[in-house]
């Protein structure tokens, strides 16, 4: 999702833009988000949860670092979700990512010392990320008992 200002993220604006893109789709979407985009996706998803099949949230930014925790849902998301984090991410401590996973009812995967899980931390094509997405997709499509 293209944002107006990549250098000065504003959660309400970013979430509104994510929500616009989701609303423009003919079917519910599968969300894959990274860093501050995770916060925008979760906030947008709280407004239009029936439009999201599931969300893979990779290296989410720490909402408290931006003073944004109160703008995010403080309850379980109604769509399946997974948070993937690392032990040495400069933007969020693993314990904080795990806390939000518990709050949102997300599954949680810590992949060790992987930095911010982006190009700057040495990542390019990420087969493990695709495997996480497939795991989440299977869980989302499984019959609910």
Describe this entry's structure for a reader:
With 145 residues, the chain is an alpha/beta fold. The chain is built from four helices and four strands, in the order αβαββαβα. α1 crosses α2.
CATH level 3 topology: Rossmann fold
Radius of gyration over C-alpha positions, nearest whole angstrom: 14 Å
Write the CATH architecture name. Answer: 3-Layer(aba) Sandwich
Q: Could you give a short account of the major beta sheet?
A: 4 strands, parallel
How many structural domains are formed by the residues? 1
Main sheet: strand order: 1-2-3-4
Estimated helix fraction: 25-40%
User: Gap between N and C termini, in Å?
Assistant: 34 Å
Q: Which CATH C-level class is it?
A: Alpha Beta
What proportion of the residues form beta strands (DSSP E)? Answer: 15-25%
- Total number of strands: 4
Note poorly predicted spans.
none
Oligomer: single chain
Shape: globular
Order of helices and strands: HEHEEHEH
Helix/strand class: alpha/beta
> On the 0-100 scale, what is the average pLDDT?
94
Q: Kindly report the name of the CATH homologous superfamily.
A: Alpha/Beta hydrolase fold, catalytic domain
